[in-house]
């Protein structure tokens, strides 16, 4: 693979300059369906980690040695192939996730961005995020990623309690995390996100709120609160099942979440999504694409994507999953240009269910304009306006259905899963009774 050329270096320099431009609080009006089919976000999966955390069941591997040049070439090839298959002409954002992508070399990141900029339009102000762990993200390394084109960092801090970090199998200490966070903020001011977990075994509300308040003295303008999910096959799941650790208390976790979001609101953060909080306009535009059911391409072992194929005469969006195991994925990419293992066409109702479930995760919800791009004939009022169960949710103040569209209230965001138990069956009933028009892939 050649060293990234002048075009990529010029793009990286322009991207650095674009960081200084002011941000806006809300996403703009969605593009027309024709334009939307030509736009996408790009997710790039780096599958390798130093060790597997006790709670993690993601597609990641602990290698004896990484053939990074081969992995880099395959990431570049698959990105170009999927861009060509999808007909996407504009990449709105790029997200390097994993795994631990901060273990990759900055040259790999630069090579992928160069390939994207060569195959499609990658605007200078596109959000380019890299997930980073404190133990693999020294200041000089973060600066090198910035020079490669990264302009936003997502740091897996998880906890400010060393005993909790040990329980989670993390390789860093709380001091390591704060040191990395300070360096990241110096290099990427206003563009650093941190993750904080809640609902751990034996975790108590008061000390966790204390962690959150301490983090507010150090964090930037974006923070994510994630509740621990015990996943079968993980070390933590086994420890809880065998009685070595107490099971997490869901009522305590709910109390942590409610008090945590109140603390963040008091600190000036907008809860723009169920788990995500931002101030000063620092929303993640990449994740916003997911919640708005925009197209996204998944590159790398086990990556997921959703997009329409161009040139097939079909307007059906596909859900795609790439081959999980890195060595097998690389063989497939070298053979056919991509490692797609599974392709599932999304039916019209399935897509509307995604629009509903994903859109309601945000504080904006689903505007009438957005809904009509996916279903021009069957309106939100047609689907939900006459339902007695929905009217009850509206009267309880959990939902709002008005001239703007359908959205959760502040109280409703916290119980979205229970609301969907009412809303999704109502959508299915309305779909069966109505005569909706074809959905052109969104």
TrEMBL record:
Gene3D superfamilies: Aldolase class I. It comes from the Eukaryota. The lineage of its organism: Eukaryota, Metazoa, Chordata, Craniata, Vertebrata. Keywords: 4Fe-4S, Chaperone, Heme, Iron, Iron-sulfur, Metal-binding, Mitochondrion, S-adenosyl-L-methionine, Transit peptide. It is found in: Mitochondrion. NCBIfam families: hemN_rel (TIGR00539). Residues 34-270 form the Radical SAM core domain. PANTHER family: COPROPORPHYRINIGEN III OXIDASE, RADICAL S-ADENOSYL METHIONINE DOMAIN-CONTAINING PROTEIN 1, MITOCHONDRIAL. InterPro entries: Aldolase_TIM, Coproporphyrinogen-III_oxidase, Elp3/MiaA/NifB-like_rSAM, HemN_C, HemW-like, rSAM, rSAM_sf. The keyword Mitochondrion applies. Signal peptide: none annotated. It comes from Galeopterus variegatus. It holds the Pfam family Radical_SAM. The keyword Disulfide bond does not apply. This is Radical S-adenosyl methionine domain-containing protein. May be a heme chaperone, appears to bind heme. Homologous bacterial proteins do not have oxygen-independent coproporphyrinogen-III oxidase activity. Binds 1 [4Fe-4S] cluster. The cluster is coordinated with 3 cysteines and an exchangeable S-adenosyl-L-methionine. The gene is RSAD1. Belongs to the anaerobic coproporphyrinogen-III oxidase family. HemW subfamily.
């Amino acid at each position: 693979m050649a060293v990234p050329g002048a075009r990529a270096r010029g793009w990286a320099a322009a991207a650095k300059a674009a960081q200084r431009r002011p941000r806006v609080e809300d996403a703009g009006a969605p593009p027309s369906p024709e334009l939307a089919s030509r736009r996408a976000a790009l997710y790039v999966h780096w599958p390798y980690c130093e060790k597997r955390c006790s709670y993690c069941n993601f597609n990641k591997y602990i290698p004896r040695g990484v053939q990074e040049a081969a992995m880099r070439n395959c990431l570049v090839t698959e990105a170009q192939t999927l861009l060509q298959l999808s007909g996407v002409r504009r990449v709105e954002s790029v997200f390097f996730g994993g795994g631990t992508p901060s273990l990759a070399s900055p040259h790999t990141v630069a090579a992928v961005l160069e390939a994207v900029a060569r195959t499609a339009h990658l605007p200078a102000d596109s959000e380019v995020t890299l997930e980073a762990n404190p133990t693999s993200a020294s200041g000089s390394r973060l600066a090198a990623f910035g020079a490669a084109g990264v302009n936003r960092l997502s740091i897996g801090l998880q906890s400010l309690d060393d005993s909790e970090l040990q329980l989670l199998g993390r390789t860093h200490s709380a001091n390591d995390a704060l040191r990395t966070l300070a360096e990241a903020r110096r290099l990427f001011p206003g563009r650093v996100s941190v993750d904080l977990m809640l609902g751990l075994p034996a975790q108590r509300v008061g000390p966790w709120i204390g962690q959150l308040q301490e983090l507010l003295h150090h964090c930037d303008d974006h923070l994510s609160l994630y509740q621990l999910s015990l996943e079968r096959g993980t070390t933590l799941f086994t420890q809880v099942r065998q009685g070595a650790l107490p099971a997490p208390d869901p009522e305590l976790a709910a109390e942590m979440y409610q008090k945590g979001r109140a603390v963040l609101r008091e600190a000036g953060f907008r809860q723009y999504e169920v788990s995500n909080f931002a101030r000063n306009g620092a929303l993640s535009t990449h994740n916003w694409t997911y919640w708005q059911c925009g197209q996204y391409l998944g590159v790398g072992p086990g990556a997921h994507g959703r997009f329409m194929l161009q040139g097939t005469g079909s307007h059906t969006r596909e859900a795609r999953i790439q081959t999980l195991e890195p060595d097998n994925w690389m063989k497939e990419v070298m053979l056919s240009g991509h490692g797609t293992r599974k392709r599932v066409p999304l039916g019209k109702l399935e897509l509307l269910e995604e629009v509903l479930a994903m859109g309601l995760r945000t504080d904006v919800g689903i505007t009438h304009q957005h809904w009509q791009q996916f279903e021009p004939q069957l309106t939100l009022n047609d689907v939900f306006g006459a339902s007695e169960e929905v009217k009850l949710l509206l009267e309880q103040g959990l939902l709002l259905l008005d001239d703007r569209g359908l959205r959760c209230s502040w109280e409703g965001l916290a119980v979205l899963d229970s609301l969907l138990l009412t809303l999704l069956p109502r959508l299915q009933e309305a779909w069966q009774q109505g005569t909706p028009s074809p959905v052109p892939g969104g």
